[in-house]
Amino acid sequence: MFQTTDSQKIGIALVGFGAAFLVLGVILLFDKGLLAIGNILFLSGLAFVIGLNRTFRFFFQWHKLRATASFFGGILVVLFGWPIIGMIIEIYGFVLLFSGFFPFVISFIRRLPIIGSVLNLPGISKYVDRIAGDTSRSNV
Fold this sequence. Notes:
The chain has 140 residues and is mainly α. It is built from 8 helices and no strands.
């Protein structure tokens, strides 16, 4: 395994709190204050986890320009007062930015005790495989 530094632990906590605030903001009918706090916590947590320089290099790559513009544009639209439209734009940018990580995340979630068995059910497994991009998955 790898060792996590104190700043990475703080970053993981900030990302977790950011995700919690985003979920809470959506549950409470797209409360723009909670969504804004969630976005700020998520971005600052990401910077703590992977470092400020790598965060900038991740977001501002030439081939990810549309995704970055959508993600940050969605954050700005939320801050300007249109939370539903802003979250739709932000989710689109998030999916484009982080779609390369989905196979790793899904393979990790499949190893969890309860959620993994649900994701491996015959009807659900087909859709999860499509999201993960894993077309040649073998049953073991």
